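Quick log. Single chain, no ligands specified.
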Amino acid sequence: MLVTIVLGRSVGRFIICGTVFVEAQMAPDSVGTGWFSDHVRPLSDSDAVLWTVVIVVSVFDIVTTIVGIARGASEANAIAVAFLETYGTSGVGLLKFSALLLVALLWWRLPDRYASVVLLSFALVSLLVVALNALTLVTL
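-> predicted structure:
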């Protein structure tokens, strides 16, 4: 499967993604059916903003988590603890990448309204986590 992101207009110093094109190689008798059928989702302005927030906040989540662990804070998320025990510090990035991959897949396949709800929910939860991480770092 080939995923291509076409960059669109720029806003200030940021480039907003325009459209995500996904091509899937399928058997001729199954074209247009199944999970990986050809699908194009135009990127609305609100989704572009939400994707920007999700990516930026995810980076801050990774950084604040790694810094907090280095300073002696403990991880509260049981899944993150399992990733940390298995993969070390890089487990934080691997977990976040896995979560972003799941969000991207859901956004790509769900109807517009639900796709935006997935993005908004992930952005809000990530913002809360980063705020709590920052608060923890300040109190260490």
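The chain has two domains: 1-43, 44-140.
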